[in-house]
Amino acid sequence: DADVTQTPRNRITKTGKRIMLECSQTKGHDRMYWYRQDPGLGLRLIYYSFDVKDINKGEISDGYSVSRQAQAKFSLSLESAIPNQTALYFCAIMDPRGQEDTQYFGPGTRLTVL
Amino acid sequence: GQNIDQPTEMTATEGAIVQINCTYQTSGFNGLFWYQQHAGEAPTFLSYNVLDGLEEKGRFSSFLSRSKGYSYLLLKELQMKDSASYLCAVDSNYQLIWGAGTKLIIKP
User: Under 8 Å CB-to-CB from B2, ≥6 apart: which residues?
Assistant: First the structure.
C-alpha cells in the first residue's frame, strides 16, 4: 500500500465551485505539505502543518484553506475555484526525526477549473 | 530573495553521461535534494547532500559546494527510462525551496 494517498486523482470543476482535495498517510509522520505544480514552474508551497494544531501558510496560500483533521489527514480546500487554480496538486509528508528531511509525495491530483 | 536555478532542458544519448547543474541562493541551508519526476507522476527522492563533496548511489552521483551555492547531479550509463525531469531543492529552515526542474531527453 502507498504511504501517501490523495483523492480524487483527477477532478474537473467549474468556476465558483467549492472543491476539497484530501490527503492521507500511513507513516505517522507529523509534517504534511500541500504543493501545486504548473508547467515550467517549480513546486510551490501552499500550506504546511507540523502537527494537528500547527498550520502555516506557504508561498501561495491566497484562495486556499486547509484542515488537519488528524495526524494522518490533511485536506486542501478551494472555497471558490477559479481557472488559474488549474494545476497538479501534491501532498507530501516528512519525518523530521530522520537523518535527512526528505519529503515523500502522494501521487498527485490533477485539477481543472473551467 | 530565495532562488534556485537549473537548466530548463537537456538532451543526451543512451549509454552516455550527463551532468545537471543547480545553483542556489537561499536564506538558510539544511541540505540539498535531488528528485526525479516522470511526466504526470509524483517526484521521487534521489539524493541528499548536506556536506561538501560527492555522494554516489549506483549510476547517480550528486555533488555539493556550499561556498559556491552549487550542486550537480551526474547520471552515468544513461537508459531510456532516465528520461524525466530532475528537480533540485534546498532545505531552507525546514521548507523546501524548489527549482523549476530540468527536463532530460534521452535519445537512442
Answer: B25, B26, B27, B90, B92, B97
Residues 6+ apart with CB under 8 A from A63: A78, A79, A80, A82, A85
B1 contacts: CB under 8 Å, gap ≥ 6: B25
CA distance A94 to A89: 17
> What value does the CA radius of gyration of chain A take, rounded to a whole number of Å?
13
Cell of B62: 550528486
Q: List Cα–Cα distances, A39 to A77, A90, A97, B100, in angstroms.
A: 22, 14, 33, 9
pLDDT in tens, chain B (108 residues): 789 999 999 999 999 999 999 999 999 999 999 999 999 899 999 999 999 999 998 999 999 999 999 999 999 999 999 999 999 999 987 788 999 999 999 999
Q: A97, A103, A110: best mutation site toward chain B, by most B Cβ within 10 Å?
A: A103
Q: How many CB atoms lie within 10 A of CB B59?
A: 13
What kind and span of H or E run contains A81? none
Residues B82, B60: Cα–Cα separation, whole Å: 11
Q: How far is A42 from chain B (nearest CA, A)?
A: 4
C-alpha distances out from residue B62 to A38, A83, B76, B78, B97, Å: 26, 38, 11, 15, 18
The residues in A 4-33 lying below 8 A from B, measured between CB atoms, are 31
